[in-house]
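Annex B.
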Amino acid sequence: MDYQNRAGSKFGGGGVASTSATNADRRERLRKLALETIDLDKDPYFFKNHVGSFECRLCLTVHQNDGSYLAHTQGRKHQTNLARRAAKEQKEGKQNDIVPGMLAGVQVKKNVVKIGRPGYRITKIRDPVTRQNGLLFQFQFPEITTGVRPRLRFMSAFEQQVEEPDTSYQYLVVAGEPYETVAVKLQAQEIDKREGKFWDWFDEDSKEYWVQLLFKTERDARFSAVPGLSSGRK
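Splicing factor 3a subunit 2: predicted structure tokens.
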């Protein structure tokens, strides 16, 4: 760092560095160190999105430039996630059955090139009988891999790492290769998963994936937590 040219310091003397200046110097040193040891073209978690920002697919973080991404890779969060991913892959590799004709102990990793996000449409709905509010999702997967059916799951605010956790929300995650996985932010209200209330369907001809969900009313949510009462009463 250039201490002598800092405002308020004498020539040849070292002024006291501010916190922001110290952090900037640390990030620059980490960037230079990372450039010497990391080839971004071979980094499986490095991704440049359509707006020119850089994303870490492992930690689900967004960075404005490659220097910020490189500094992130040297941080505790990225290193911890790398260790977790390695432990998970090692565990799954030991539990996988051996495929005839393949070497034992060799784990095959799929390398799928993502082609973008699927199109979607969201419609607000209401059950005419129970007056429950809900949503109807329509996802378009025109180039989905043959034989692959889209999958979905619900994710809590603490599982995602894109934004600060907020217990007021939950996420509906939909995946279908070779498209990128997408997530829809929903209110953290209990989903009614009774038959006819929550369903999903994939149209093989039009390549459209439909998902319907209804939220439980306050009365249903209250009684579903009472011991001895069925949460699936109609």
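The first strand starts at residue 46 and ends at 48. Residues 20-95 form one domain. Further annotation is deferred to the next reporting cycle.
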